[in-house]
Amino acid sequence: MDQRFQIFLLVFSIQIFSIASQDDAVLQALRSQWKNTPPNWVGSDPCRGNWDGIECSGSRVIAITLSSIKLTGQLPSDIVNLSELQILDLSSNPGLTGSLPLSIGNLKKLSNLILAGCSFTGSIPDSIGSLVQLRFLSLNTNRFSGRIPPSIGNLLNLYWLDLAENQLTGTIPVSSRSSPGLDNLVNTKHFHFGKNQLSGDIPSQLFNPNLTVLHVLFESNKLSGSIPSTLGSVRSLEVVRLDSNSLTGSVPSNLDNLSGVKELYLSNNGLTGPFPNLTGMTSLNYVDLSNNSFTASAIPSWFSTLPSLTTLNMEDTGLEGQIPTSLFSAQLQTVNLKGNHLNGTLDLGSSFSDQLQVVDLQKNSIDGFINEPRYTNDLILVDNPICQESGVRESQKYCSISKQSDPLYSTGPNSCARTPCSSDQISSPNCKCAYPYSGTLFFRATSFSNIINPTIYTSLEPLLLLAFQSNQLPVDSISLSNPTRNLDNYLVLNLDIFPTGTDRFNHTGISGVGFVLSNQTFKPPDTYGPYIFIGHSYNYFAGSHKSSSTGIVVGVVVGGCVLVLLLVIAGLYAYRQKRRAERADKQNNPFASWDPNQSSGGIPQLKGARNFSFEELRKYTSNFSEVNNIGSGGYGMVYRGTLPSGLLVAIKRAQQGSTQGGLEFKTEIELLSRVHHKNVVSLVGFCFEQGEQMLIYEYIPNGTLKDSLSGKTGIRLDWMRRLRIALGAARGVQYLHDLANPPIIHRDIKSNNILLDERLNAKVADFGLSKPMGDADKGHVTTQVKGTMGYLDPEYYMTQQLTEKSDVYSFGVVLLELLTARNPIEKGMYIVREFKMTMDTTKRLYNLQGIIDPVISGNELIGFERFVDLALSCVKEAGINRPSMSDVVKEIENVMELAGLNPNAESAQTSENYEGISKGFDHPYTNDSMFSYSGTHFPSKLEPK
Fold this sequence. Notes:
The chain has five domains: 9-197, Alpha-Beta Horseshoe (Leucine-rich repeat, LRR (right-handed beta-alpha superhelix)); 296-403, Alpha-Beta Horseshoe (Leucine-rich repeat, LRR (right-handed beta-alpha superhelix)); 426-535, Alpha-Beta Plaits (2-Layer Sandwich), CATH 3.30.70; 610-698, Phosphorylase Kinase, domain 1 (2-Layer Sandwich), CATH 3.30.200; 705-914, Transferase(Phosphotransferase) domain 1 (Transferase(Phosphotransferase), domain 1, Orthogonal Bundle), CATH 1.10.510.10. It is built from 16 helices and 47 strands. The strands form twelve sheets. The protein has a 15-stranded mixed sheet. The protein is globular and about 90 Å long. The chain starts with a helix and ends in a 47-residue tail after the last helix. Mean pLDDT is 83; it is low at 1-20, 544-563, 584-590, 592-603 and 909-945. Its main location: membrane. Its EC number is 2.7.11.1. Residues 1-21 form the signal peptide. One of its GO terms (molecular function) is protein serine/threonine kinase activity.
C-alpha cells in the first residue's frame, strides 16, 4: 500500500469517524521508535482505543505510565508536543537509552517525571527548570553525567528530587544574582543525590531555616570541606546521610538542635575534633560516626541518654578507656565499637535491653568480662587481650566469629497449604499459582539494624497490600523475602506482587502497580526511611492483542468484503487449529519422532550423552530405593545409580509439578551435552518418558566446596589446596565462556555449585540457570535476573543486562569464601563490603587476619595479597573494570608459581591422601548441592539452597 493511498484512507477515516485527537501523531511516533510497546497499541486513536499505559482527557493525552514492560529505544523529541501531559512514568525499563530532549521544558503541565531504573545518558537539560508544575523528579539509577542544572532551583512546587546513582559531577548549585539554585527549593522534602561523583564543599547557603526538607542524602560522593553549620538550622530534617565522602573538620555543635533527626550517617570521612554532643537529638534511632579521626576520648555520656537509640556504630573513632555499664541500658539492638582503644573489664550490667542482638568490640584492649546475668546473643571480643589467654580462645564463644547462615525471611502462607506450581509460576501467600510482578525495594536509611526480625516485615506487608488495593489495583497478595544490607548500607528487600482473579497481570495492572511505588504513593513506616523501587521486566502479560500493519485504516473496510473475510478466517482458523494440535504434541514429547537409527525428526543434537529408558534407571537404582536416595532439592530427588559398566552416576529426578516443558528440557540437555571439560561436571545422559524428566551426571564423591569449607565433609583444605581448587574452578568457568559451543554464561557461580572429586579437583556444576550466548548476544543480552543472593552481580541486577563479567563477579565472591570460609552474607553483613572496609594494604596480610578462615590463618600464605587483589578486582562495581576469566586463570597460575606450586601438576591421588576421610559424609548431594534446582527467577522466592 503506497503512502498516497494510506493518506487518502486516513483522511477518509477522519471524515467518517470525526476523530480529532491532537496527540495521535506523537503516540504513533513513540510506537514506531520504541520496541515492546503494549500489543493493543493499534489503530489511529490512542485515546478512543484505550491504549495500555495511556490516560486521556477527551482527545488529549495527560499520562503515560509504562513501567517494567521491557521498552527499548530512546525518548524522541516528539514527546514535547504532548502539551497536556501531566505524568510520564517510564521507570524500570533499562532498555531505554540516549539523552533527554533538550526541549523537554516545553511540557509545561508536567507534574511527575519518573525515569528511575532506565539507562539514559548525557547531561540533564537545563530546560528542565521550565517545568514549573513539577512535583516529582525521579532521574535516579541512570547514567546521567555532567552537572546538576542550577535551573532546578526554579521548581518551587517540587516535592521529590532524586538524582541518586548516576555519574553527576561538579558542585551543588546554589543561587546567585544571575542564576537560581537548590537553596530556593523551600517546599522540597527530599534531596537525594547519593552515589554520584559530586565534589567541592557543601555550600553553607544550601541550608536555611526556610527549608522544609526531610531527607538530605549525599552519601558516596566526593564532597570535601567541612559540614556547614547552617545544616543545624533546618529543623524539619529526619534523615541526614553525608557518609563516604571526604569531609573534614569538626562536626558543628548546632546539629544538636535537630531533635527530629532519626538517622545520622557521618561515617567514612576525615572528620576531626572532639566527639559531637548529640544530647538534643532525642529522636535519634541510628547513628554511625565510624572511620573518622576524632580526638581520643572516653565514651561520651550522651550515648546512654538517647531514648530511641537502637544502633550505635563507632568503629575506629578513637574511643578509649573503659566501657560504662550504663551504655547497655538503652533500647539498643546493635553496638559496634570495634577498632578503638577501649580497655578494662567489660560489664554489660543487669539491665541490658532484650533487643540487644550484637555487641562487636573486636580489636580493642579489653582484658576481662563479667557476664551476670548471662548475655546469650552475639558478643565479639576477637583481637582483645581476653581472647589471647591460654584456654580462653578455645572455650569461649565470644573469642571467635560465628558462622551463621544467611538471614532469611519470606512471607508465609495465609492459613492455606501451598501446592507445587508449574513453569515460572510461584505460589502466592494465598496459595494460588501465578506469575508475580517482581522487583526490589531499597530503603536508604532504616532506623533499625536487626533485619532478621520477622515482625519488622509482617508490619510492612499489610501496608503495601493496602496501598495497592486502595488504588483499585488487581493485587491479591504480596510477598517480601531475602532482607540484606548492601555495600551502601541500604536495606534491600525482594518484593513479589500477585494478581487477583487470574494468574497474571495485564499491562494496565503493571503500570498501576509500578506507579504506586515509583510515585511514592505507598508510604512505609517511619522506621524504614526513604525508599526506591526498581521493578523487573514483566514477561507474562495477559490480554495481548495482535497488532495490525494496517491498523490506521481499521473500520474503513467495505461491507461487501466482510463475507469473503469471514470465509478466509474460517479456513485459516481450521488450519491453525490443526497446526496447534501438532505443535502441542511435539511440545509434550519433542523426542516422539526420534528414531535412534535415523538422523532426522526431533533428534536432540547430543555429543556423548545417552538416552536412558525409565526401566533402565529403575534397575540401576534398585527401583529408586531409599538407600540410593542421596539428596533432595526444589527440583526433586537425587539417586545414586550404578551402570552395567560399573560407573557410578547421580540421577536427578524431577518431582511431578516441577518439570519444565519438553522443548525446554530438550534444549537444556542439548546444551549440557556439548560441555566437556575436566573442570566441569559431565552429563552422562537423560530420560524423558512415562512423564519423567531425569538428568544423569557423573557421581562426584566429595560434595560441594561449601561443604568442605564449613567442615561438613571432614576434608581439611590448606592454602595450597585452596589455590588448586580456585584454579580448577576458574578453568571450568573460562571453558564455558571461551571454548564451549555456543559460549555459556553460568549465572549461578557459587561454592555450592563447585564440586570436589575423589582427588579434590574442582568441577563446576548446575546449569539450571545457564544462558547460551549466540553471535547476536556478544557484549550483553537483556534477560530476567536470575542467580543467588550474595553472589549476584549488582550491575546485572540493576540493568538486567547479562555479560560474562556477571560470572566473574560471582567467582570473585567465591574467592573471598576460600579466604574466609564465611557465607557471602552473614548477619546482614556482605563479605565484599567487609573486605573493603577491613583491609589495609600497608599492613601484613592487608590487616585481614581477623576475617581469614582459622584453618589457614596460621599457615604461611604465600601470594595471599595478590589473591586478595584478584578477588577484589573481580567484584568491582562496573563489569568493564573486571578481568576476564582467562585473565583470572593466568593470575591464579602466577600466584601458584609464586607459592612454589606447578599449576599443571596433578592433584592428590585421592582425597584420603589429603586428610579426606570424610567423617561419615556419605551424601554429597544435599539441599545445598548442585541438584537443588534454581529455576525460579531472582528475586522471587529463592528457596534456601
